[in-house]
């Protein structure tokens, strides 16, 4: 199998290198990789090496590559993965919204609440697609192709089919008591949601500006949102979806939001710990995702 080894130093002139090893991830050990590097660069004998995964966690030399999380097979770029993930809801929501008779057996007029939530969801995922194309810079190059199905399931099923089916149904149609929203409720929700979305975009731009194109440089983020928490992008994302929950009052929106927030909190805690470990001068007053809480 072919294995690419990159250096943590973006200015390295020797790395990345590509090694060709006989065997599979199940038979090749991390120690074998270290010996192959030594063969190519004799001065880098195994005791002088520190092999890590993309999260900079040291690999156990006695484990196989498979045990260390290295897999063989077709790869797909992370940018493409995100485009596929967010593209699902962009296709699914219009189908449920405009083809009501196909799914609910009858035509009906959507309520102002349903129309507002529809445009919120479409704008959110369109924003995510544009950020993927023009804002985000990815430290990880590729991932196993089959993982795209697992990653997309969350968006295509929970924020796609599940959310669209239950929010755009006849039980929330115009004239139904369950769909009635006061102007304060409706327009107030839009205002808070728009603030959360724009705040999320601002934090993404801050993170982009920390990493020059073509590098994996890491630095401490400062500025709007980052003074209190390490991952304000996740915090603002949660606020945006919580607004959708209160506006729609649908259990499907709450289900997606709870699952998404839980996953983002796990990521936030991991990133927060990595920041503190990597940067000795990292601000001590910051929490991971929720200001003053955690």
TrEMBL record:
GO terms for cellular component: endoplasmic reticulum membrane. Keywords: Endoplasmic reticulum, Fatty acid biosynthesis, Fatty acid metabolism, Lipid biosynthesis, Lipid metabolism, Membrane, NADP, Oxidoreductase, Transmembrane, Transmembrane helix. GO terms for biological process: very long-chain fatty acid biosynthetic process. It catalyses: a very-long-chain 2,3-saturated fatty acyl-CoA + NADP(+) = a very-long-chain (2E)-enoyl-CoA + NADPH + H(+). InterPro entries: 3-oxo-5_a-steroid_4-DH_C, SRD5A/TECR. Pathway: Lipid metabolism; fatty acid biosynthesis. It comes from the Eukaryota. Catalyzes the last of the four reactions of the long-chain fatty acids elongation cycle. This endoplasmic reticulum-bound enzymatic process, allows the addition of 2 carbons to the chain of long- and very long-chain fatty acids/VLCFAs per cycle. This enzyme reduces the trans-2,3-enoyl-CoA fatty acid intermediate to an acyl-CoA that can be further elongated by entering a new cycle of elongation. Thereby, it participates in the production of VLCFAs of different chain lengths that are involved in multiple biological processes as precursors of membrane lipids and lipid mediators. Belongs to the steroid 5-alpha reductase family. This is very-long-chain enoyl-CoA reductase. The lineage of its organism: Eukaryota, Fungi, Fungi incertae sedis, Mucoromycota, Mucoromycotina.
């Amino acid at each position: 199998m072919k294995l690419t080894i990159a250096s943590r130093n973006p200015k390295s002139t020797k790395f990345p290198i590509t090694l060709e090893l006989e065997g599979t991830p199940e038979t090749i050990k991390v120690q074998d990789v270290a010996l192959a590097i030594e063969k190519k660069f004799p001065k880098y004998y195994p005791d002088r090496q520190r092999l890590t995964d993309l999260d900079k966690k040291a690999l156990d030399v006695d484990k196989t590559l498979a045990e260390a999380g290295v897999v063989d097979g077709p790869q797909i770029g992370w940018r493409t993965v995100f485009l596929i993930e967010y593209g699902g809801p962009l296709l699914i929501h219009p189908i449920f919204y405009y083809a009501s008779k196909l799914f609910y057996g009858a035509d009906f007029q959507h309520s102002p609440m349903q129309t507002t939530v529809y445009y919120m969801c479409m704008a959110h995922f369109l924003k995510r697609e544009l950020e993927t194309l023009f804002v985000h810079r990815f430290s990880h190059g590729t991932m196993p192709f089959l993982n795209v199905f697992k990653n997309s399931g969350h968006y295509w099923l929970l924020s796609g089919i599940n959310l669209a089916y239950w929010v755009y149904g006849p039980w929330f149609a115009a004239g139904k008591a369950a769909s009635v929203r006061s102007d304060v409720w409706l327009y107030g929700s839009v205002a808070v949601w728009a603030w959360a979305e724009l705040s999320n975009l601002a934090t993404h731009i801050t993170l982009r500006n920390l990493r020059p194109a073509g590098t994996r440089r890491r630095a401490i983020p400062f500025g709007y949102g980052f003074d209190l928490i390490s991952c304000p992008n996740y915090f603002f994302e949660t606020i945006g979806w919580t607004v959708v929950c209160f506006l729609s009052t649908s259990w499907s929106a709450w289900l997606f939001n709870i699952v998404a927030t839980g996953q983002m909190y796990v990521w936030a805690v991991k990133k927060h710990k990595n920041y503190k470990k990597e940067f000795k001068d990292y601000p001590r007053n910051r929490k991971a995702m929720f200001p003053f809480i955690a």
